[in-house]
């Protein structure tokens, strides 16, 4: 999940003007920002050379902000929407476009990450659907649509933004993106309040596995079977966390200085990973990160102001190898396909979710 793209962008100059006005008010700031000077973004050349690969992607289904996708044993596509409902196609997608959808379950919050409990990309018959939902936490949905909350907090802290999830050895690993009610605040404050949680399906215990993450977002298995990858959206990077083996409990940077804000990360069928990038980096916003006083003034403005912060619509999915290097990319510079928050491979195609538009797209590989 990520929130810089909106249909009515607010220019960075407008932000600075708003900050100047806010500086003269007596209002307390809800932000306690830190100073950060991001490295210069990588040039859009070589493996990042823009193309138009995503421009011809087909519309699979329509929903309001379909963040992620999952597929059941019959080949039906599931996704969440802004109204708090998980929808699914009435028939297998099977190369179709404009598939009708039906409500499957209302989960008590906005559904973000989706995965079947058996941990397989395409769920086995009878496998419950696990959902990471904003406000609601980790939710299990039975094959007939009954909803059960498994966990909505850990270590005395409510899970405000359960974002993505992955099942490994009987544990559901869930990203808890931020402590903020307005998740855009995390992206400006940079206090790295994101966490990785683990929910044991057998014991029902929830543990805090990793803290200090910069907007913890997507999660996927690492290349060695002993680690997980977690995207840190606000820091333009992917972190690797070891859950077993000699390095259990350790973490390190897996991929750094990405060209945009990484969202979900998904395994590619022939090795490596697909990384969804809803927005490419903006030089003015990077510069703003080095000015904590200005960012503090932004915290005096109404939340609706930061909700309008935007980059230009742009479609981008990265291909990253098992060493964390970018080895390819798919683009739509014109922004017909934009705000991609997930890229899930299924039967020879890449299904593209987005928190910010109304469609799930399919790109044939």
TrEMBL record:
SUPFAM superfamilies: Calcium-dependent phosphotriesterase. Residues 168-245 form the Strictosidine synthase conserved region domain. One of its GO terms (molecular function) is hydrolase activity. Keywords: Glycoprotein, Phosphoprotein. PANTHER family: ADIPOCYTE PLASMA MEMBRANE-ASSOCIATED PROTEIN HEMOMUCIN-RELATED, STRICTOSIDINE SYNTHASE-RELATED. Belongs to the strictosidine synthase family. This is SMP-30/gluconolactonase/LRE family protein. It comes from Haloglomus irregulare.
């Amino acid at each position: 999940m990520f929130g810089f793209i909106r249909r009515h962008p607010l220019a960075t100059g407008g932000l600075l003007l708003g900050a100047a006005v806010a500086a003269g008010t007596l209002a307390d700031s809800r932000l306690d920002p830190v100073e950060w000077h991001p490295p210069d973004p990588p040039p859009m050349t070589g493996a990042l050379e823009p193309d138009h690969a995503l421009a011809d992607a087909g519309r699979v289904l329509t929903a309001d902000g379909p963040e992620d996708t999952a597929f059941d044993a019959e080949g039906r596509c599931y996704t969440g929407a802004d109204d708090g409902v998980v929808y699914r196609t009435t028939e297998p997608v099977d190369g179709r476009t404009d598939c009708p959808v039906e409500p499957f379950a209302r989960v008590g919050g906005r559904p973000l990450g989706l995965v079947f409990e058996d941990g397989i990309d395409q769920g086995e018959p009878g496998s419950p659907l696990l959902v990471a939902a904003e406000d609601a936490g980790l939710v299990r949905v039975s094959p007939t649509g009954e909803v059960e909350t498994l966990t909505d907090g850990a270590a005395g802290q409510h899970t405000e933004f359960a974002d993505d999830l992955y099942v490994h050895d009987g544990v559901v690993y869930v990203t808890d993106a931020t402590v903020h009610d307005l998740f855009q605040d995390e992206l400006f404050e940079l206090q790295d309040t994101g966490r990785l949680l683990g929910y044991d399906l057998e014991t029902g215990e929830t543990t805090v596995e990793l803290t200090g993450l910069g907007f913890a977002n997507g999660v996927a298995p690492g290349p060695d079977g002993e680690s997980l990858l977690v995207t840190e959206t606000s820091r333009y990077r992917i972190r690797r966390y070891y859950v077993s083996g000699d390095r259990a409990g350790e973490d390190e940077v897996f991929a750094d200085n990405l060209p945009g804000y990484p969202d979900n990360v998904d395994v590619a069928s022939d090795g490596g990973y697909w990384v969804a990038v809803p927005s490419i980096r903006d030089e003015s916003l990077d510069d703003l990160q080095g000015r904590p006083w200005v960012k503090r003034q932004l915290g005096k403005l109404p939340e609706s102001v930061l909700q309008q912060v935007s980059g230009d619509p742009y479609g981008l999915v990265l291909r990253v190898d098992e060493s964390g290097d970018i080895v390819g990319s798919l683009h739509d510079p014109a922004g017909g396909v934009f705000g991609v928050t997930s890229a899930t491979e299924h039967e020879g195609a890449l299904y593209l979710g987005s928190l910010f538009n109304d469609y799930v797209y399919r790109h044939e590989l």
